[in-house]
Design a protein that fits this description.
It is rod-shaped, with a radius of gyration of 14 Å. The chain is built from 2 helices and no strands. The N and C termini lie close together (9 Å). The protein is mostly helical. It has one domain. Keywords: Membrane, Transmembrane, Transmembrane helix.
Amino acid sequence: MNVKRTFGTILTILGIIGLIYAGYGFVNQSGQTRALIVYGVIGLIFFVSGIGLVRNTRDES
């Protein structure tokens, strides 16, 4: 398996986890708004970059 595709998958999963955590915190109205915004932004960056790596990496098998 290609290393870029594996790294892209890991980044995508981490991004999904970050976005879910931020969404869960916003729904529960936790008092740490700044931390939740940071988790959401980092999760979004990881998610988008992971999807980009998976999409742009070609299979060379």
